[in-house]
Design a protein that fits this description.
It is a single chain. Helices cover 43% and strands 11% of the residues. α2 links the parallel β1 and β2. The longest helix is centred in the middle third of the chain and has 20 residues, at 76-95. It has 179 residues and is an alpha/beta fold. Bound molecules: NADP nicotinamide-adenine-dinucleotide phosphate. NADP nicotinamide-adenine-dinucleotide phosphate binds at residues 17-21, 42, 63, 65, 108, 110-111, 113-115.
Length: 179
């Protein structure tokens, strides 16, 4: 944060985008969780609120995931960190209501990036991804409309189904992803 403020003294928008995703077989015991701390610190606890409140207009943009709405069992720590980030972002927005800081919760579906490529290819997920540009465009439209929760593509369905039929959508999504 010190570096960012030094290099960009007028910084007023923070996009928390860094993320790690790991396939973990919890049945394999403690060893399978090695490295889980990095996943938690990068996806969740690295989210900082800097001195944005002193700016006349500012924003925090947290990049979550559809898996924070409906978890995938093969990716347990990732799903948990994104669920936690979703809750955290909601709390942050509530605490900052009435201030100059807007808080966005971006919830992408599977996106065609480098994220966990090996495991994703093994699961045959590559065909179901959207482009990073499509996510950026959806976010920009939401920014212009001042719409704080940005459910992109399939995540709109996940959000709706997680309220109407949570067990059904969990089972359905997990039937598509090999454990
Ligand atoms: N791809 C998807 O399907 C998908 C779906 C939903 C949400 N998301 C979310 O979108 C965000 C971006 O991911 P992506 O898909 O673009 O994945 P990506 O291509 O793997 O990029 C992840 C980025 O995070 C950075 N990063 C990882 N650990 C870091 C750390 N400890 N400190 C600083 N930077 C770190 C990486 O930097 P280096 O390259 O320098 O390591 C990389 O630039 C993540 O939050 C991810 O959870 C992705």
């Amino acid at each position: 944060m010190a570096w960012a403020l030094r290099e960009h003294p007028n910084l007023n928008v923070l996009i928390n985008n860094a993320g790690i995703q790991r396939r973990i077989d919890l049945r394999a015991g403690e060893e399978a969780l090695t490295g889980g701390d990095a996943e938690i610190s990068t996806n969740l606890t690295a989210v900082l609120l800097p001195v944005l409140q002193s700016r006349p207009a500012a924003a925090v943009v947290n990049v979550g995931s559809g898996l924070g709405i409906v978890p995938v069992a093969a990716i347990p720590v990732y799903s948990a960190t994104k669920a936690a980030l979703h809750a955290y972002t909601r709390c942050l927005r509530h605490q900052l209501r009435g201030t100059s800081v807007r808080v966005f919760d971006v919830l992408p579906p599977a996106v065609d990036t480098e994220l966990d490529q090996g495991a994703r290819a093994a699961r045959g997920e590559t065909a179901r991804t959207v482009s990073p540009e499509a996510v950026a465009e959806a976010f920009w439209q939401a920014w212009c409309r001042d719409q704080p929760v940005v459910a992109v593509g399939m995540v709109k369905v996940l959000l709706c189904m997680s309220r109407l039929a949570p067990d059904f959508i969990f089972t359905k999504l997990n039937s598509l992803v090999k454990l």
